[in-house]
Amino acid sequence: MGKETKYNIINILSYQLYEIERLIKKDVERGDMIYNYFINENKCKLLDFYQLETYLTKTKIENLASLESMNNLCIRINNLWNDDLKKLECKKLENPFTIKEPLFNSWIDFYAIYISKIEFHYCITKEDKKELLLNTNKHYTLASINAKCIEIRNTLKSFYPSLRLKEDSKQYYIQYQNFKHLKFTPKIYPIYQYDEMSDIFNKHALDCKYIFENLNRKEQNTFKNHVIDNLIEVENIQIHEEFKKLLSNIIAYCRNNFNEPQKPTENNKTSTKSPSEGENNLTVSTIEDWLFEFKEQEILKEKHYKNLVTALDCYFEKGTFPVLENKIKVGRVNKKRFGWVLNRIFHAEGKGIEINLLRFAKNNISIFEDVNFDENNLQKSNLYKYFTTTTEQHRKH
């Protein structure tokens, strides 16, 4: 590792996190919180995780003790926010704090701080606070500071995945509940990291199981699809078969509601399911997970929901769609949203948007019956676009 400046971003962030933790602990002890932080960042930015990312890109760190310490500070701040601060009222002032230009009026107490690389300079007097407010453009809340701590943790784990092994499942549950985000950054892993990454991915699967079991049915479907989509992204860019096989096994575990898929053997006389039946159950589970939101919102009534699940399952098992007596009626819904979900079901089964799916949708799904579909110019047809364009709602997932 090359020569470092006296204060690198690790030193700076560690100090800032320690100071923020100290302030929050004072709030908890006092029984009310100072929610607003007005920061003058002319000399240094607060919790600059972008600079951290740049530093870690250029600098190889052999001893992870300093990163572990920073990660633990972030965890403690996250826990204080989730377990203690949310229960507290904001600290009130005896008299309102007022500035005429620019207009500022508050009955709620706040911090006014000039920050340098390793020091917080607190404004104590009313005049000093006024001067800072007139010359600062950075306003942070405890919620936004907590979010920055999450970003720092994610950045650290992106560069040093072994830090994931230091955290318990509850931390990831809290993170997902607050931000609906729990992802690995897709990147190629070198073969010498296989043992380490095997431990990390297996722990990730157990963390996800814990989260899954603590969510309601609707949240479970969204979460499971979020996890699987991310792991497929990571799997697709790997160049070593060992990693592809590892990730494929983890994905199968996730698809089976975070349980090991059944592996029947010739000597397993207690099992009444053949291998094909076991695979079929897993396929049905995947289809139902994606379509459940439409059933729950009554976009698909029970009869039509079952018909669509059965038709898709038949296609994946036999390679052909069944002949339906009646069309599958779909209520009012964005066509792109519905088409994209069918896209994701096919993707989960290792398939692309096939012409058989488009023909089936055109002839058997009510919302697509009047949509333009030219088999000779497939990718220009509106039907194809409905199946290959993600909506903003699903992009967030």
List keywords for this structure.
single chain, elongated, 397 residues, alpha+beta, two-stranded antiparallel ribbon, 55% helix
Account of the 3D structure:
The protein has 15 helices and 6 strands. The chain has 397 residues and is of the alpha+beta class. It has a 4-stranded mixed beta sheet, sandwiched between helices.
Could you give a quick summary of the protein structure above?
This protein has helices at residues 9-30, 49-58, 65-83, 126-134, 142-159, 169-179, 194-213, 217-236, 241-255, 275-296, 302-318, 335-348, 355-364, 382-388, 392-395, and strands spanning 36-40, 92-99, 104-108, 110-116, 119-122, 138-141. The chain is of the alpha+beta class.
Contiguous low-pLDDT stretches (5 residues minimum) are 1-5, 264-279
The end-to-end distance, rounded to whole angstroms, is: 39 Å
Q: How do the SSEs run, as a string of H and E? A: HEHHEEEEHEHHHHHHHHHHH
Mean pLDDT: 86
Structural shape:
elongated
- Summarize the amount of helix as a percent range: 40-55%
Strand order of the largest sheet: 5-4-1-6
**Strand runs, count:** 6
Please tally the helical runs, counting DSSP H or I stretches of 4 or more residues: 15
Please identify the structural class as seen in this structure. alpha+beta
* Main β sheet profile: 4 strands, mixed
Rg over CA atoms, rounded to whole Å, is 27 Å
Q: Note the beta-strand portion.
A: 5-15%
